[in-house]
Amino acid sequence: MNNFHVPLPIVVVFLLVFSISFVFGARTPTVGGDTNNWGTILNEFLQLEDTASGTHGNVTADSLNVSGNLVVNTSVLFVNATSGNVLVARLENIRFADRFSTLQAAFDDAGTTGTVLIPSSYNGTDNFTNPNKIPVIDLRGGVSRNTGQFNVKDFGAKGDGVTDDRTALANADAAATASGTVYIPPGTYRIASSLKLSSRLVFSNGAVLSPDTGVTVTIAGLLEAGLFKIFTVGAGTISFASTNASYHALELIPQWWGAKGDGVTDDVEAIQAALNASSSQWVGIVRLPPGTYLVSRSIQLRTRVSLVGSGVSTSLGVGYGGTTIMLANNSNTDVLFSNGTALHWVVIRDLGINCNKANNSAGNGIYIGGQPGEGMKVEHVFIANCAQNGIYLDNGVVPLYWEDLHLFNNDGSGIKLYRSVGTSTYASVTLLGVSGDDNGVALIEIDGRGGAVDQIVIMGVKSEANTAGRQRDAIRLVNISGSHVFITGVWAGGSAAADSAIKIAGTAAAQVVWHNVFARASTVPNILNDTVNNIAVRNNAASNSSSMSGANFALDYRGGIQLGGGTKILKHLSNQSTLNFPNTAAQTSSDLNITVTGAALGDTVTLGVPNGSVNANSLYTAWVSAADTVTVRFNNYSNATIDPASGTFRVDVWQH
User: Residue 407 to residues 307, 366, 435: CA-CA distances in angstroms?
Assistant: First the structure.
């Protein structure tokens, strides 16, 4: 049997059938009359066809048998016109409520297999229980569902925003139990004392729960609603409660608290309410549908709650698709933040942040400060136009895993990791696939002041500086003494002048390993080292320029090695060979050759002599005698013939 989410189509079919039946001459049974005519009259309107919506074709009844004032042994078959004769629902053994003294009597008579139909003219008592979860057809504007769905208005709810509807909601929830569904039609339902709803909730557009100040409504079951408001903001609290790790968390959307995403309405309260509500779950997700969400103050991130958008638009404006959070004019604050408390296991992904710096003098796109937390992932996020940094992490969360980040035109750095207090280390920081143009200081800035920044991996960086004086370094490492850093795949380009692809400054001792680092302009060093005294470095990438420069240590594959400001060493060549010099007369010499590919006339040569070949009053010398050839000479300065022992000789050739 098909289980549809919001079972209004069945209601619509019955309402349309009843409303248009008079046009076609059909009518509903007359209370107190029409004995033994119920089946005929029912068939008249059940045979009518609804073609206006295109979703339901016709509704038919079969096996109609009449006994007294009740229809028994009856099946009502709902047919879906768009997909053919597909069974949508079959309602068995219909009991018409107005033929009983109370609704409860109709339910009792229907037993475990029947169906209760409440005509639109019914004006009896609404209160009933449905322990067997049989289908209910409420033609007064209620619902029909073959798994037991309960309209809160059948339990006395008014939905007028004034009457306390708590008892009616609680009774409907109790009647539905774990497998039933509570249907909430349009209206504002005031709740004056705390309430827990455990059943499945189905909200119509226009249905709003409104808890009083200090009141908490706890939703412990599933919830079905569209992109419309179903909760009020600012008075009571909506909580999605479970401390059980096995609980299936709901994805919450800020539209349920009234967010518009139109770039005009201030949506900060709605987004914050969704995050707060989601934080009560074991693991929470707040999803932002496509739109531009204007915020006038910072949004506080919550532990174990992920903030997920619907994709990124590079325009970060209104009406360009994707999800963008935009800072309202004159807000002068961070867009997303957490400060003062530890933040654990947070994911931010698939959205853009526009700090609107043209109309704000301060603010980071994401700011995490205060106590260190554990576990944070940011991926597929675009941050632009911040008066400060795109992402600023100050004594924040580790380990970090940030991937596919795009940071443009922020006045600080695109990403800044800063250790302002304490001695604890950042550990396991991973940045993958970072790109950005024209940030104020650097695309990536890591400052370990106050503590080491350890186990840093940076892979795949594309940096462009197209505005004079901006983003002069692709990666800037400052005060990282004691740190271990691995960097690979860096490209630094753009039309404006820059300082370096990687700049290391203010550091006494660190271990930095890099690979495949490239700076576009020949005047820009790949690695610029200002003050490092003890740094282990590796690089095997060819480049246009000197790769590392500074007062203490400079290194490049093509540009050379420079130690202490001395002459650069461009290349080192080496080879070894077994040499067996002949008997050499007194005051003469003997020559043998070793091939060293690449050696050129005038190159510096050093020679390694085996200990067994050393003799008194003699000397070995070596020089490049021809291209690719090093000659080793044995000089006998004694007054007797010497026969040197055979041995393995090594020559090293240095080019400057």
Answer: 19, 12, 6
